[in-house]
Amino acid sequence: VDASIVVLFYVLFIAPLSIVLFLYGFFPLINYDNTIATENDIPTFIENVRIKTDTLYQPMVKRVILMVIDALRWDFITGSIGKVAMPITSSLIANSSACLFQTKVHPPTVTMPRIKAITTGVIPSFIDVALNFGSKPVTGDNVLLQAKKYGYKSVFYGDETWLTLFPSVFERYDSTTSFIVTDFTEVDNNITRHLHKELHTKTDWSIMVLHYLGLDHIGHVHGPFSPLIKTKLKEMDNVIARIQSRVQEWNQNNDSSLFIICGDHGMKDSGGHGGSTMSETTVPFIAISGKCVQNNSHFTEVAQVDIASTLSTILGVPIPYSNLGSVFLDSLYNLPVSKKLYVLFYNAKQVFNHFQQLTDYKSEYAYQKYMEAIKLHIAWLNTKDHTNDITDDIVLSYKAALKGMKELLISSMIKYDFHLITVAIFFLSHETVNKMGKWFFPLGAFVHAISFGGSSFVEEEHQTWYFYWATLLILLLYNTATKFYSHLQFYRNYKQYSNAQNCIKLLLLMIGHRILRKLNSTGDKYAHLPDIAGVLVEQESMLGMTVMLATALILLMWLDFIHEDKKYKKYSLMFNLLMCICIYLRHMHNNNVIKVPLYPQSRGIYEVQIFWMLLAMNSVHYIYRLVSMIKYNRGIFLQTTLFFILRMWIMVTAMLHQPYNVILLPLQIIVSSLTGSIIKDNNAFVYAWIGNVFYFYQGNSNSLATIDVAAGYVGIQSYMPIVNGSLLIINTYSAPVLAYLLLVYYSVLQYPYDTHVIIKQVSKTYITWRLLPITIYTIIISIQRHHLFVWSVFSPKLLYEAVYSTVICVVIIIVLILITLQNAINNCHR
């Protein structure tokens, strides 16, 4: 066995393992205290002063309706679209029939951790963004569990995540799958159809939770500026009006009720979520009960974790044991001063129980404010002269203490396993340094890796790659033009003719780069700027999108046709044509391209299933083709298999891509071919750069919000985590993987007799180039672990780098296995 192959396999297995070790050390799963609060936790004394809790801490309402509208942005209520699309809700806020609060959400802005925050008052760990696709039941204390303990009956309709997190809480329920993002209507109709029964017939419940998903799904597929958003908001407005009318009747009949409308997270301008932009982390919280106490002209800001403690006090149940949130009850109700102060004391005491576990807590400002608040509170209880100034001082002291304790407790929850982190960095750096000794890395690769120390460079990484690519093309053009000029006297010389050709190629590449970088606006600072994709999506005629998709599919068929073996050209053309038709019909179903006349109504499911059948048939044909070809030419196995893998990868990604992004596939092949014909050395680095440039052309960034979730559900009617996750990875990392496959395939064509050596060489270079940035980044993020943007900027980038590196390692392993098989076939026929 070739020792170098064994070493390379070792590196490819150790690298992902080291990455996993680092992630486990950097993102440790927080072991929350599973203690459940009891009635004994409701304080009956403030120091030595006895409190009458039977009058100060009682249920304030008989019914609570919590309506969560997934991805309800702040401006969907307060912006211009809110006034048009949600007139009833806007009027309720305007006349103070509803209280509006601006709610701040902690990243990651995905549903599962946000539900946990709302119900437990605890900030979930960042790694919950990955667990969002496989939730586990909440074992700790939460407001729903407390409500059940105290005899409240709960019902639920909506996102099945609630049932996964709270499997034994709800008496009645009907759930919908949150991950089928192409469903805009049924997913919400399934909730609304239960409203009449629950509001008028079966009114035996005390808590009703509704979680509407349609708005989020439209955002994922069409973005927040789609006309469908306005239609969906009008639908939600009608639902709110329907429930509000019934709540008003109950309140008039002394059947006190509270109706809450809120978003779990917001929505980025690109339509996704998961990041930390203002539009993702700012959502409305609307409370409808009676007359609003606060002035809605100035919105009170609350944290999402404050909801659990506030709901608990409204229901008169113990605040969840691990809660870190602050009650904002005084903004909802005009409370008696004694009750207002008691609720703040209880909340502060409950948070202080955790705060006093910190070392040197007595030296903190929050502790001083807490003791000051209690001292003033006792003085207030022992005097009959209750002036407003004293009351205000007590309230402000309690709130300052709660805010300070919350901030310190949140920062203390972030713990790192430095033993694992050190071991992971050692293995990553060891493998990287060993390979770097034999090859010279371009200065750009090192500068790029070091640039990750700045949050802006992480957010705007695409600018780095666009600059690198443009600089490379300019330098190549300068070099080629210089050669062309120096040989003008030998105009008929072949080299002179070749240099002229290369100049034209480079000019075309530069023009193409300028156009493609405007295909999708990405990053953070300039993501809002107009782009080609946005213009095409907004066209009512869909002509531009149709032409672009058709051009892309024709180019793909042409490229496959010219590279295919003459014997199989017609057969391959037929299969490619059928698969391209399926791709077009898939996008036609989503109303992205012009409809085919007389084509029957379809949901786009069968077309995708036919596509997979064609792919399977093509695979069977390739196996037969390989077996028959090996008999006559045993050296053809690797080349034929690589061509087949390339074709399958390109066709699958074409099916998953947005219609305006399909054009990137043939263009990446053309750009790789043109660049490879100009640059003969260091091809591995050049192809790696091309992969990264096209990765950002696609609209990707280092924000979780730019993940095209819809790609994971193309042609799928049910939630299958492994399949959905695989499709998401294929769609996201299509360009880097395609770059490596093209590099290997062209290397096999160029060096048919030294294939084994060449592929090992380029694979070593490629994996070294990939491990360099993640190795340096693990060191940077360890140093920057206390940075202000560690969770909003640096941590998402770490996840992207981890998946990227793992995907490349897996692909290289597959190629090395193919080389090993080719060698085995050669040896068998000797």
Summary tags:
10 strands; eight-stranded mixed sheet; 830 residues; Alkaline Phosphatase, subunit A; two-stranded antiparallel ribbon; 34 helices; 3 domains; 6% strand; alpha/beta
Q: Determine the strand fraction and express it as a percent band.
A: 5-15%
How many distinct folded domains?
A: 3
* Mean pLDDT metric: 86
Distance between the termini: 17 Å
Strands of the biggest beta sheet: in what spatial order? 6-5-7-3-8-9-4-10
Q: Characterize the overall form.
A: elongated
Give the structural class: alpha/beta
Radius of gyration: 31 Å
Stretches where pLDDT falls below 50 for ≥5 residues? 433-441
Estimate the helix proportion, in percent. Answer: 55-70%
What profile does the largest beta sheet have?
8 strands, mixed
User: Total helix count?
Assistant: 34
Please give the number of β-strands: 10
* Quaternary structure type: single chain
InterPro entries: Alkaline_phosphatase_core_sf (IPR017850), Phosphodiest/P_Trfase (IPR002591), PIG-G_N (IPR037674), PIGG/GPI7 (IPR039527), PIGG/GPI7_C (IPR045687)
Keywords: Endoplasmic reticulum, Glycoprotein, GPI-anchor biosynthesis, Membrane, Transferase, Transmembrane, Transmembrane helix
Subcellular location: Endoplasmic reticulum membrane
Family: Belongs to the PIGG/PIGN/PIGO family. PIGG subfamily.
SSE topology:
Elements: H1 3-26, E1 45-46, E2 49-50, H2 53-56, E3 63-69, H3 75-78, H4 80-85, H5 87-94, E4 99-104, H6 111-120, H7 128-131, H8 143-149, E5 154-159, H9 161-165, E6 170-176, H10 186-192, H11 195-201, E7 207-212, H12 214-222, H13 227-252, E8 257-262, H14 278-281, E9 282-288, E10 300-303, H15 306-315, H16 337-355, H17 365-381, H18 388-413, H19 418-436, H20 443-450, H21 455-459, H22 461-486, H23 494-516, H24 532-538, H25 543-563, H26 569-589, H27 605-630, H28 637-656, H29 664-678, H30 683-697, H31 721-732, H32 734-750, H33 755-783, H34 790-828
Parallel strand pairs: 3-7, 3-8, 4-10, 5-6, 5-7
Antiparallel strand pairs: 1-2, 4-9, 8-9
Helix pairs in contact: 1-19, 1-33, 1-34, 6-15, 12-13, 16-17, 16-18, 17-18, 19-33, 20-33, 22-23, 22-30, 23-29, 25-26, 25-29, 26-27, 27-28, 28-32, 28-34, 29-30, 29-32, 30-32, 30-33, 32-33, 32-34, 33-34
